[in-house]
Amino acid sequence: MGPWNWPIVGMLPMILLHFHCMHEKYTKILELSKGTILIKGAWFANIDMLTTSNPDNVHHVLSTNFSNYPKGPKFRRIFNILGNGLFNSDFDEWRKIRGLAQGFVNHKQFHRFMAKINHDFLENKLVPVLDNASQQNLVVDLQDVFQRLMLDATCITATSYNPNSLCIGFPEVPFLKALDNAGEAIFFRHLVPEGFLKSQRWLGIGKEKKLSKACEVLDHIVAKYISMRQEELGKGKRPEENKDSFDALKYQLTETEIFGTTPTNKYMRDAILGLIFAGQDSTSAALTWLFWLLSKNPSVETNIKELLKSKLPVRTCIHPDTLPSGHKVNSKMKIVFSAYAMGRMTSVWGNDCLEFKPERWITEKGGIKHVPSHKFLAFSAGPRICLGKESAITRIKSVAAVILHNYHVQVMEGQFVTPKASIVLHMKNGLRVRNKNTWP
Known about the structure:
Helix content is 54%, strand content 7%. By secondary structure, it is an alpha+beta fold.
């Protein structure tokens, strides 16, 4: 049985009451509703959301009937901080932007540059910070470490500039705080009526106030990077740059034959901010949960360490449609995929879906078992599948391998680990750990 649909306010009381644990609540509701349910908003707000964890529905929307499900104007209003970049665009505009972005990530110089960044940041940023924490016997927030590492690495990839947020002492970083506040506010926008958000903006309070300030910080920083890069490239490359330097700003400012003309500052701002959002938040969250899961499954961690020793040198419908589950959708309805719930559905993964079993991804011959992307939405699916998928996986594996090979990570007991209410699955309270060097 689903949540109660109250007169006038719909299911809004349930949303507000469980806002702090929305991922878990949606998982329970979807399990009881065979994977799909219409969440009714307040009658006057027009925010009905068809929420699904059904892989067939996901495949239908993201692949089979892709052209009927653009992101739409409501989605762009919610994510307006990202402007008109790849994340928010539709139709011909999306195809053009994606084609340009694909040219960047497929460029041979991009792969050389990424390899150099990964090596330099692991050796000169991550290891010194963790070594110091180990020598001083300090407890550190591993999520904070990963967020700082990924912010620095992604900014280098996007602009060639390093915010240097990951360093001994962990200084306060306005850039990082702005990204975090923006993620929380965007998640909140999905769940409450537009009128309520307008009231917050008018009064200058709540999540909208935080989002407004976050926009100011992000716009200022990105504009500074663009201006500096334009000036440097206009004068010739910086002395410290080498032939492997190939950031997104340089690509946009120098590949005029591809772009047809020099992109506007607004275009570059949207592209760079979208890249930073995508590359920093999701990768750091994945690494944090990985080490939490390993702490709960020490036998898996032991196996990985032994292996390293041996091997190391949201959518809007245009036309009325019916999903495979039988649910009817129309142009006024928002469709939400619950990737969190999808990974916890017995109907999708079987009765052992809540068990940590890495072997479910491995074939009997030791290869990687193919799982359709519409069953595992970490990198989206269909024509909009993430362009940076391979780069993200490589970076996650590199960071995890360095830490597991060089340190024993001890997760502090007594901390409450739960997801944050945000568009990215960060831990609400971080992950406090103490690390010890493996090698004397």
